[in-house]
Amino acid sequence: MVVLNKIYTRTGDAGETALGDGSRVSKHSLRVRAYGTVDELNSILGLARLHASGAEDEGLARIQNDLFDLGADLCRPDMERDADAEYPPLRMVASQTERLETEIDAMNARLEPLRSFILPGGSALAAHLHHARTVARRAERHVIELSSMEGVNAAAVIYLNRLSDWFFVAARIANDDGRADVLWVPGANR
What we know:
- The chain is mainly alpha-helical.
- The protein has a single domain (27-182), classed as Up-down Bundle (Hypothetical Protein Ta1238, Chain: A).
- The protein is 53% helix and 5% strand.
- Strand 1 (16-18) and strand 2 (24-26) form a beta hairpin.
- The longest helix is centred in the C-terminal third of the chain and has 24 residues, at 124-147.
- The model has no long low-confidence stretch (mean pLDDT 91).
- It comes from Roseivivax jejudonensis.
- Its EC number is 2.5.1.17.
- Pathway: Cofactor biosynthesis; adenosylcobalamin biosynthesis; adenosylcobalamin from cob(II)yrinate a,c-diamide: step 2/7.
- Belongs to the Cob(I)alamin adenosyltransferase family.
């Protein structure tokens, strides 16, 4: 259980922060950038949820929780020491990605095939979901870069890759099942 009885600690005043294993790193480290971008993505979902209801809102709530799991995974380096940890670290698992895939397939079954690229926009919810899609891709790039230098849970990378697909399809659903998508018209303003 997390207990936060004091919000500021002053321990980061010199530009360092603590990771989940207690080690300290620069706040501009790639690991911090990766999980910080996941946190940014979670905030965007908070805005999206202002425009969602029912199943849309429930799906976004599940993803917000997953993103906290993902942040916990990313802030804990050195997966080889997981078995020796006093408390088992929270790691992303394949079933979280499998749930996204099932939901993508169900949403996509409602949609007509695309015959053009889509411009981000349409409804307020769709616009926020497109924003979330692009930030998910940025988070994925940071995590992949991190994985080229340090150990990263492969399930975390796969989850982020699938998550941006989920946001794309959900944005189409939010645009009246794709009927209100804003289509790209190549060379329209030449």
